[in-house]
Hints:
The structure is a single chain. By secondary structure, the protein is of the alpha+beta class. The longest helix is centred in the C-terminal third of the chain and has 16 residues, at 283-298. The chain has 2 domains: 7-85 and 90-123 and 301-350, no CATH class; 126-298, von Willebrand factor, type A domain (Rossmann fold), CATH 3.40.50. It is built from 8 helices and 17 strands. Helix 2 (142-155) packs antiparallel against helix 3 and helix 2 packs parallel to helix 8.
Amino acid sequence: xxxxxxxxxxxxxxxxxxxxxxxxxxxxxxxxxxxxxxxxxxxxxxxxxxxxxxxxxxxxxxxxxxxxxxxxxxxxxxxxxxxxxxxxxxxxxxxxxxxxxxxxxxxxxxxxxxxxxxxxxxxxxxxxxxxxxxxxxxxxxxxxxxxxxxxxxxxxxxxxxxxxxxxxxxxxxxxxxxxxxxxxxxxxxxxxxxxxxxxxxxxxxxxxxxxxxxxxxxxxxxxxxxxxxxxxxxxxxxxxxxxxxxxxxxxxxxxxxxxxxxxxxxxxxxxxxxxxxxxxxxxxxxxxxxxxxxxxxxxxxxxxxxxxxxxxxxxxxxxxxxxxxxxxxxxxxxxxxxxxxxxxxxxxxxxxxxxxxxxxxxx
Length: 363
């Protein structure tokens, strides 16, 4: 991308992580650095969607950042942003300046940081990808499943955008991510059943699509049977979903539940990413499962943190606990770790005014 004079390019990378490199400081006898030079500012930011329920399975609301403790690889972390449900996300800790790690941050330093508006564009919003099984397992109850999915899509008031995909042996991106509900519903009605089921192949592609976007990322899968055509192991799908902060929810029928291997895989995959698995015995159970997912999305806490210095470049484990005695019987559900990924959020700002004139996107 060409950067015009008077523009600076800021890149947010990592998980979301950033690394800074800038033009060398000019010597006295050299001309000043051209405004066409660009500076890359890198700050690590890890996002978590956290569900908290009591001993009866009811959602616990009204918690504050001080109620949560986050530990990465045994290292305590500070909550940087916090939000509950549909409330605006609050910034609690500023990003470390000039590419420093969180542990090196000096609050008095005036180095470049993300503004509140830029940070909000990274951590806010909800993108829901619906992945529908249209394999030959779906001949029975196909219309009922379409109805349940359509009702679920109509009820997603908290989602900014929705995409509808379907799969059999191949992935069909019937409706790309959009805020237009009617467009998504037309995609649901256009599906037909047939061919073998390559669930994990197609789910991996869906996770990769979701990883391109900022904010809360959720994939809701409706599966009527086991996978009989994939070459991708489910463990690879789960790890990528964890590393990109994508929660996976599975709604499966009794057909899949009859196969213990599929049942165990669905349970492990959803738990690892902070989602849940449901096994519906009837179309009414399917509707109840989708309603439960909708309620879950509406009650999630959104937390993020700038990781303290950590030499581990591989898998990093995450533990989130509640530190109040009154919450000792509550259950916390979120992803349990991540591997550093190269996703990006880019903005272009006017060097003379400091005003943002470009867009924000991820790659």
